[in-house]
Amino acid sequence: MPGTVTHSAPGKLFIAGEYAVLEPGQPAIVIAVDRYVTVEASTPETGDVVLATDLLTREVHLQRTRTGLRPTDPADIEHLTGALAHLVSVVETVDRLRAELALAPLPVRLTVRSTLHETGVKIGLGSSGAVTVATVAALADFYTLSLTPELRFRLAMLAGIRVDAGASGGDLAASTWGGWLSYQAPDRTLLLHSLKREGVLGTLYATWPGLAVRGLRPPTTLALHIGWCGKPASTSAHIVRLNRTGLRSTPSFGRFLEASHSCVTTAIHALQDDSPDTLLSAVHKARTLLAGLDADTQLGIFTSRLNDLCAAAQACGGAGKPSGAGGGDCGIAFLPHTVPAHTLHTRWQTAGITPLALQATATVHPSAESASLAGPDPAPGPGSVRLLDQGRSR
Q1: How far is the C-alpha of 49 from the C-alpha of 107, rounded, in Å?
Q2: Contacts for 105 with CB less than 8 Å, ≥ 6 apart
Q3: CATH, domain 5-216+362-389, list 3.40.50.720, 3.40.50.2300, 3.30.230.10, 3.40.50.150
Q4: Residues 22 and 293 sit within 8 Å (Cβ to Cβ)
Q5: Region 41-70: what's the mean pLDDT?
Q6: CATH fold label, 222-356
Q7: Residue 384: phi, psi to the nearest 5?
Q8: What pLDDT does 384 receive?
Q9: pTM of the entire structure?
Q10: Among residues 111, 161, 181, 352, which one has the fewest Cβ atoms lying within 10 Å of its Cβ?
Q11: Is the pLDDT of residue 262 over 90?
C-alpha cells in the first residue's frame, strides 16, 4: 500500500483586478502568502475514504458509489456540500482521472490542517483554493501520479469548478506557483462542457482559452502591508450577488473591464520596471474602480474599516485598497520602505484594523515538462517569469 505523503499550499491575496478577473482573459495580480493549508494522505485503518479536517470536530467516513462519494453516516451528508465540498470534489475528480487511466481506486485518508485564519476565523486568504491545491498534490503523490505544476493547477481547477463554477481560479494559481503572479482565467463554462464530453484526461490536455499565468518581480522600494478588518466575507456570495444585478452584460461593466485591464497592465509594467510611483498610482486607481463598481452594484465591497484602511495608507504617503471580493476581511497597502511600519499600523489599530504579519512566498518556477506543455513565451517582459500561457493544446 502507498505510504504517507504530506503537501502544503499557501494562501493568497489579490493585489489588483478583482471582479474583472472573473471574465476569461482579464488580467489580475495575485500573490501567495506564508500561511498554509497542509494535507496528509495515508492509508486508512478501515473504510474507503476518510476525511479529517480542523473545520469539523470528528472525521467523516465516505464510500465510493457510481454517483460519487457518499457518507456512511447519513448525518454527515450536509458536510459534502459544506465544509468538505472541495475535498470531496478533488477525490472524485482524481478518482475519475484514475478510472480513465484504467487504474483502480485505493482507500485513502486525508487529514487537513490550516493556518489561514486569525484566532479561529477565516481572514480571506483563499482557504478553499489552498485546500484544493494541497489535496491534489497529496493525492497525486499518494497514487504515484506524476503531475507537473501546470497539470496540478489544471486538475485543481477542474475540481474547483465542480463546486463553484464562478470562481476565477486565481487562488489556485497562487497556491500552485507561489510568489507574485499575473493571472488570466480560462473560460470555466467551456471547461465544464469539456469535462462532460472529453472527461478529465481529455480536458487536462485541451486548449484552455483565456488562461495565462506569469511570475512577476516584487517591488523593491515599496513595502506591502496587510490589514484584517474583522469581518469574514464570502467571495462566492459576492459573485452570486453581482450576477443577480445583471451588470455583467451591460456596457457599464464593459467599461469597467477596459479600465481594469488598463490599470492591471500598468501595475504589471510598474513591477517589471520597479517603478514605485507608477505602482502606487495603479493601486489607487484599482481602489477607485472597485469603489465605482460598489456604487453601481451595492455589493458592499467597501466597509467603514476598509475605507479607514485606505485613508490611513494615503495619509502615510502610500496607497491602499480592499483585497479580493471585499466586504470586510482583508485590505492591502503599499508604503515606501522609508516610512516606518508602525506609522501605518498605529492608525489601523486605532480604527479597529489588525495588521497581519504576512509575507509573499517565493515563486516556484515551472519544470521543463511544464514549460514544454505551456509552449514558448511569445513576448516575455523584463522581470517576468512565464509559467503558463494557453496558446496551443497537446
Answers
A1: 6
A2: 48, 64, 95, 98, 99
A3: 3.30.230.10
A4: no
A5: 95
A6: Alpha-Beta Plaits (3.30.70)
A7: -115, 150
A8: 35
A9: 0.91
A10: 352
A11: yes
Of 353, 357, 282, the closest CA to residue 312 belongs to 353
Q: Which residue bears the cell 486548449?
A: 207
Dist. CA 367–CA 140, nearest whole Å: 16
The pLDDT value given to residue 230: 87
Residues in CB range of 226: below 8 A, 6 or more apart: 13, 33, 323, 330, 331, 332, 333, 355, 356, 358
CA distance 343 to 88: 45
Output the pLDDT for position 163: 96
pLDDT of residue 120: 64
Residue 262 corresponds to which cell in the numbers above?
Answer: 488598463
CA 366 to chain centre: 18
| Residues 238, 360, 118, 36, CA torsion sign | positive
Q: Any idea which residue has 512577476 for its cell?
A: 216
Sequence spans of domains, the chain: 5-216+362-389, 222-356
Going by their DSSP bridges, the two strands 212-216 and 384-389 should be labelled as antiparallel
Q: Report CA-CA distances (Å) from 120 to 157, 208, 313.
A: 27, 37, 27
